[in-house]
Automatic annotation (TrEMBL):
SUPFAM superfamilies: FabD/lysophospholipase-like. It holds the Pfam family Patatin. It comes from Halomarina rubra. GO terms for biological process: lipid metabolic process. Keywords: Lipid metabolism. The lineage of its organism: Archaea, Methanobacteriati, Methanobacteriota, Stenosarchaea group, Halobacteria. InterPro entries: Acyl_Trfase/lysoPLipase, PNPLA_dom. It comes from the Archaea. Residues 7-211 form the PNPLA domain. This is Patatin-like phospholipase family protein.
Length: 331
């Protein structure tokens, strides 16, 4: 019997290079497995970038191509030249001071050209990685995995997700549009003319959509690539530590709510309260980053840090695969 697997990629700035590393390790094993089948990918913010690169690479040429795209995406966005490196160091240092309570002047992204330059750069990287016309054509094939990219409608206050057939560079920019750094993105075809922000403010990552599929494609297992630590041993007392933990808790809020709903459905299924031809048990596994990084490092695009996170993702995913059969459900 084949086990259906869906992978949900949490967002979290540069830390989501960890997600790309984890996917680089997970995808070849899934592709080679006769007992597991990938039925869905979802992501928000940087997790959306990783989910897109993984989905497109897999459907275009297979896991080897997806591995290349995942690494290329994050290295292309890293601070690779002296000017970009200096700007990155200044941004991280400023964020560290702000989180520590220092009075640092702040400028709206609408009053500085750097915001538009940054979004234009992200768009160029996206278009160098993905042929979006080809992406839409691939989405029409029967049996391809689901792809869901999360954003939030700024004006309407509603969560909004986009499937593979509707993902565009603008959708990706919207999912990655951190309000303090980038302009909100108006999406083509939005009848209301509403702007969209980073999906971190909505579903981080989208999970509900991965479950709303025909019964034969429902995930038997959901693998969550979790950027924000679920637990901390000590109570933070320094301002920087408090800022770190607040960010982690807020980043996990929507995800934990959706996972609790899966747990509730599992309970109803086990008790026979739901028809088994429409609902089934879904085992949830979390693959966590496993280390504490400061909040300011979510803005760090230094090549050294990006490579460190890619390697950490591969390491943690490798540990998960090695012990997969022994893992218990974590819901």
């Amino acid at each position: 019997m084949v086990t259906n697997v869906a992978i949900a990629c949490q967002g979290g700035g540069s830390h989501t290079a960890f997600t790309a590393g984890a996917l680089r390790e997970l995808l070849p094993s899934l592709e080679a497995s006769s007992e597991h089948r990938l039925v869905g990918l979802s992501g928000t913010s940087g997790g959306a970038l990783s989910a897109l690169a993984a989905w497109y690479g897999l459907e275009r040429e297979g896991a080897a191509h997806a591995r290349r795209l995942l690494r290329q995406a994050w290295l292309d966005l890293s601070a690779g030249n002296p000017v970009d490196w200096f700007a990155n160091e200044a941004l991280v240092a400023t964020a560290r001071l702000t989180n520590g309570g220092a009075a640092v002047p702040e400028v709206s992204p609408y009053y500085t050209p750097a915001a538009l330059w940054g979004q234009q750069r992200i768009e160029r990287v996206l278009e160098s990685l993905v042929d979006f016309d080809r992406l839409h054509a691939l989405a029409e094939d029967d049996g391809v995995p689901e792809l869901h990219i999360g954003t939030v409608d700024v004006n309407g206050g509603e969560f909004e997700t986009f499937g593979a057939d509707t993902v565009t560079p603008k959708v990706m920019l919207a999912s990655m549009a951190l309000p303090e750094m980038f302009h909100a993105v108006e999406l083509d075809g939005d009848d209301h003319g509403h702007a969209h922000w980073d999906g971190l403010f909505s579903q981080n990552p989208p999970i509900h959509e991965l479950m709303e599929v025909p019964s034969g494609r429902k995930p038997d297992e959901l693998w969550v690539l979790q950027i924000n630590p679920q637990e901390r041993e000590s109570v933070p007392t320094a301002l920087t530590d408090i800022a770190d933990r607040r960010n982690e808790l807020s980043g996990n809020l929507s995800m934990n709510q959706e996972l609790r709903f899966i747990e509730q459905v599992n309970s109803w299924v086990e008790k026979g309260h739901l028809p088994d031809d429409q609902f089934s048990h879904t085992t949830v596994h979390r693959i966590g980053i496993g280390r504490q990084f400061g909040l300011s490092s979510k803005l760090d695009r230094s090549p050294r840090f990006v490579r460190q996170l890619l390697e950490l993702g591969e390491e943690r995913a490798g540990e998960f695969l090695a012990d997969h059969e022994a893992l218990d459900a974590e819901t």
